[in-house]
Amino acid sequence: MDLGIYYAPDSPLEIASLRDLAAQIDDTHARDVVTGAGDWGMWINGGAWLTIQGQRLDWLYRDLDRVAAIINRCIEGKPEIYYQSGHPHGFHTHIYLAEIALCIPLVDTYGDIAALKSRVSPYPQALREALIRNNLWEAQFALETSVKSAKRADAFHLSGSLFRSAACLIQCLFALNECYFLNEKGAAQAVAKMALHPNNFTDRLNLALHLQSPVESHQAMQKLVAETAELCLESGFRSA
């Protein structure tokens, strides 16, 4: 379970108090499990990995000003992606919108979360268009640049290209269905429950990524990309 801790930068987090609380409730009673703001990088920010009576609980800090700025950019159709440990496809800035849209506020004294929620629902159409256009193009491009790798059984380059193509397909399908993407875990299974997706999507994706036959894996991914492109075209969207 994740617990978001949103704060205004002009009212910094009281890290010492958070560490005192962690020492009381965490099974290890350690204070150093709590980081400072920004210790986990610009996008994840910081927080804590706690275990309370055997149950995992993660604290995640979120800068309200940064979240609001990212929401503005995404509404304008300008999502971005950054390298981030723990996110094999990278950190997509529209994850911030997903967190706001899907979270259940426990405390929202000044209505900050409610105000942000009103901005991310319904799903922004400019964001939808940008994610479909950019990710569909890259899903196709990753396959075009790995044809020789498939024939040469260059597993290192091919596996990276197939994953990249698959990850872009998932971004495309989440956006096509106007569903917010949180992270890579369980994303393929989530797509299979959406209204618009290639038939037997998860099983076919898993088979393509197994690399038992490099050429067949590449061809299997090509078919998934082509079918996704057709779904997008039927909804009025094309790749970049």
Q: What does this protein structure show overall?
A:
Helices cover 51% and strands 10% of the residues. The protein has 240 residues and is mainly α. It has helices at residues 15-25, 64-75, 95-102, 112-120, 125-144, 147-151, 155-176, 187-191, 201-210, 214-234, and strands spanning 2-7, 47-52, 55-63, 81-82, 91-92. The protein folds into 2 domains: 2-120, no CATH class; 125-234, Four Helix Bundle (Hemerythrin (Met), subunit A) (Up-down Bundle), CATH 1.20.120. The strands form 2 sheets. The chain has a 3-stranded mixed beta sheet with strand order 1-3-2. β2 and β3 (55-63) form a beta hairpin. It is built from 10 helices and 5 strands. It is globular. The relative contact order is 0.10.
Question: Which short descriptors sum up this protein?
Answer:
2 domains, 240 residues, Four Helix Bundle (Hemerythrin (Met), subunit A), two-stranded antiparallel ribbon, three-stranded mixed beta sheet, single chain, mainly alpha
